[in-house]
Amino acid sequence: MVPWGPVLGALLVAIVGYLCLLRLLRQRRPQEPPLDKGSVPWLGHAMAFRKNMFEFLKHMRAKHGDVFTVQLGGQYFTFVMDPLSFGPILKDAQRKLDFVEYAEKLVLKVFGYHSGPGDHRMIHSASTKHLMGDGLEDLNKSMLDSLSLVILGSMGQSPDARSWREDGLFDFCYNALFKAGYLSLFGYTKDKQQDLLQAEEIFVQFRKFDRLFPRFVYSLLGPREWLEVGRLQRLFHKTLSVKHNLEKDGISNWISYMLQFLREQGVAPAMQDKFNFMMLWASQGNTGPTSFWALLFLLKHPEAMQALREEAAQVLGEARLEAGKSFNLEVSALHRTPVLDSVMEETLRLGAAPTLLRVVKSDNVLKMASGEEYRLRAGDIVALFPYLSVHMDPEIHPEPTAFKYDRFLNPNGSRKMDFYKAGKKVHHYTMPWGSGVSICPGRFLALSEMKLFVLLMIMHFDLELVDPDTPVPPVDPHRWGFGTTQPSYDVRFRYRLRSPE
Asked: How many angstroms separate the CA atoms of 257 and 135, rounded?
């Protein structure tokens, strides 16, 4: 009798070994980009890439030019660094580059959510319906109420409410935006104080997950950290369960619309819980860190703070907080703040560093703006890193490392949208939200949340750094490629409610 189990096992090992060997022996074909496999078999350049993606890509571009393929953990990534050549990748009329496949694998690994065939279209449809126009206006009002509860609740209405308070700026911004966003999207119970306490505990756990996130994506966690990630995933699935949603009021129409779609598709409640975790991360993982950079840049540049406060006074009046009342702000005024718009766009240029990825579905040719053509191999991943190739390009943005609050303003105060490289207009002159099929569907809500928060802070509070000479902290090198960057360390600041004049 033939022992088929061992035979089939040996055959499987042989096939896998053969496929791995093919990848290890890969050679550059005619017209393909420069190939740099690194010195370590299979891993390639993975460790250098994960240690500091920004510095690694700077080195590779200096070595190979604007297009190159590198091996990272058994996978081959072709990086395109010329922004004038982004168009064919982002538009991809022939559908030979796929974003959804990679995204589905990532959300399954990180959040435990198994995407359905219509999810990507559904999320964009829900965002168009509820995160623009009247839907966005309603969410802005809810966010304003939540920010009032979170910030004034933490301040209290005690006699010393107008005394100076000290905190870490990053933690303060992340905490406030996360809790307000969570309550606005996932609703309240009848006990607002208990809601605040729960939101605080969720934020504490969210930050634990957030700190592990980059190494989790790269599968670099230690045994105890893997256990911790599993615990945190289960905790969020339970906390954000659709069962608990039934106990709350004011769940946003955006979340309700998407959950209704999943129910109609027959998605199990347990998978809906995981979807909620994914949406919490997508909506709240970047707004707090971005607001930190915005307020820090304003505190380091008094001329920018002055210009923004003058605009706020002109558009909204000299708002002052009355005892026992929530913040008063006309949310429609967010459409009449060109200085704030420029401040936020400049903050995102300096602080947002996402990676845009597309899986090559079949062999095809990429035509560069220069006229050169490169063959892309099926199974590889095409990658864009706009922070290095666009945001930090001195030809597109002179003095790219400097914060210029009016960089995106024309002399007449209108929005500046004309930027050039090599004499040609650059259509993608900043890309903090991604672009094409992978553009962030919640970008309008995220931007409104951050603008509301920054306006409230500069209108209603006196703000100052504990040490005015403290430098802008460097970016945590492990956060490159994961949306908004985070600082290597926090910055201490003081704040107090502004006194009526």
From this structure: 12
**Residue 405 neighbours by CB under 8 Å, 6+ apart:** 297, 298, 301, 303, 304, 307, 308, 339, 342, 343, 346
What pTM, to 2 d.p., does this model score?
0.91
End-to-end CA distance of the chain: 96
> Binding site annotation covers 440?
yes
Q: Residue 356 has which token pair?
A: 């845009």
Is 190 known to sit in a ligand binding site?
Answer: no
Contact criterion met (CB below 8 Å) for 391 and 349: yes
Output the pLDDT for position 3. Answer: 47
Residue 381 bridge partners (DSSP): 77, 359
Which two structure tokens, joined as six digits, stand for 76? 């081959």
Q: Is CATH 1.10.630.10 what the domain over 119-353+398-497 is classified as, yes or no?
A: yes
Q: Helices 192-217 and 133-155 sit at what angle, rounded to 10 degrees?
A: 110
* Of 323 and 406, more confident: 406
Mean pLDDT along residues 363-381: 95
In this model, does residue 157 exceed pLDDT 60? no
Closest CA to 463 of 422, 498, 490, 420: 498
Q: Beta strand 364-367 with 165-168: parallel, antiparallel or unpaired?
A: unpaired
Cβ-in-10-Å burial (0-12, 13-18, 19+) of 22 comes to exposed
DSSP sequence for 340-373: HHHHHHHHHHHHB-B-EEEEE-S-EEEEPTTS-E
The whole-number pLDDT of residue 17 equals 43
What backbone torsions phi and psi does residue 158 show, to the nearest 5 degrees?
-75, 165
Write the single-letter amino acid at 406.
D
| Predicted pLDDT at 94 | 66
Q: Which tokens hold the place of 153?
A: 């609740």
Is 404 annotated to bind ligand? no
The confidence score (pLDDT) of residue 10 equals 46
CA dist., res. 90 & res. 97, Å (int): 9
List the one residue out of 354, 408, 348, 371 whose CA is nearest residue 84.
371
What is the Cα–Cα distance from 437 to 99, expressed in whole angstroms? Answer: 7
Residue found by looking up tokens 């053509």 in the block: 373
Q: Where are the domains of the chain?
A: 35-114+355-384, 119-353+398-497
| Pick from 18-22, 49-53, 176-180, 367-371: least confident | 18-22
